[in-house]
What we know:
Blueprint: E1 18-23, H1 26-29, E2 65-76, E3 93-103, E4 108-115, E5 121-124, E6 133-136, E7 141-151, E8 163-173, E9 194-206, E10 209-220, E11 230-241, E12 246-256, H2 259-265, E13 278-285, E14 289-296, H3 303-309, E15 320-330
Parallel strand pairs: 1-15
Antiparallel strand pairs: 1-14, 2-3, 2-15, 3-4, 4-7, 5-6, 7-8, 8-9, 9-10, 10-11, 11-12, 12-13, 13-14
Amino acid sequence: MRKMKKFYWLCCFLLPLQLIAQDSTINDLMKGMETAPSNAKLPVRIFNAQKTINCYTTEMVGRGKMEFNVSHNFGDIAGNTGGIKRFYGLDASTDIRIGFHIGLTSRIDLNLARIKGDELRLRLDTAVGGRQSVELLPARLFEIALKFLILRQLENDPSHPISMALFVNTVVSSEKASTATDTPRSFEDFGDRLSQVIELIIGKKIGKISVQLSPTLVHYNYVPSYDENTTFALGAAVRIPFSRRFAFLVDYFHSFISDTKKENYAAPLKQIKFYDPLGVGFEITTAGHIFTLKFTNTSAILENQFIPYNSNSWGKGQFRWAFNIGRSFYLWRPKAK
């Protein structure tokens, strides 16, 4: 059954480790830090990058800058579809994202991206003649997103104790519409292809430890009758430094998926069980780069997919290598004040 078909919210993770090379200079490490008088309170840099493992942070690109960003999630390291026969997941890619992140101001970022998308395979009895067929969740995605920095934590300033940002996106599937009815790709019009995320990001540095909470809402304009349009999740991230150059990262989302949806997807034809996304990594800071060694059980990159549809379990070996490479440069130089 279609629900809220026209509802638009435009505001609406050596051995098993993943390498993320965050290409940035020392100046990039200080992005978002504006020149201030000696008596002014300086902004606190809570995290070193715009993402921990799967979770966005309150860090911004910086006014006038653009980051060209490539993210890649590989296949399972272990389990039935991993191991040496598939070179521990490196023979496969579950998702790829190519994005352009632009700092419109010091407090507003615009993201434009193309995403391969995670293709969760559903076994359905919708083929001609009643034979069982395979239907994929909508992939081949385009994303437009905005991130607004609402509050900024300042050093030694009790009146500015936290940083807060709002992330919103709209994602469009460019998949060919299915001719069958009541499937994930039974699109009737453009509105059926849209999904949205609204994420409030609340971060704070307590001593040397960085913590973050991210209540997140994911909405699909169209889903089949056995699915649900809207999923709420609560995310959290922690960064624990062991030295000036070495830190531990972890992030986690708990998706509040209803029992009805779980039962529908666990039915004999689909046999799909959902798991909470969990990522772990180690961050290494050098003079000009940030390297993050990490792995995660999410095969998808976008919150639009991994929050409501993550079917990968750490206990079954369904965790993967991934990488993220970003390079920042100026599109325009902000005028000196």
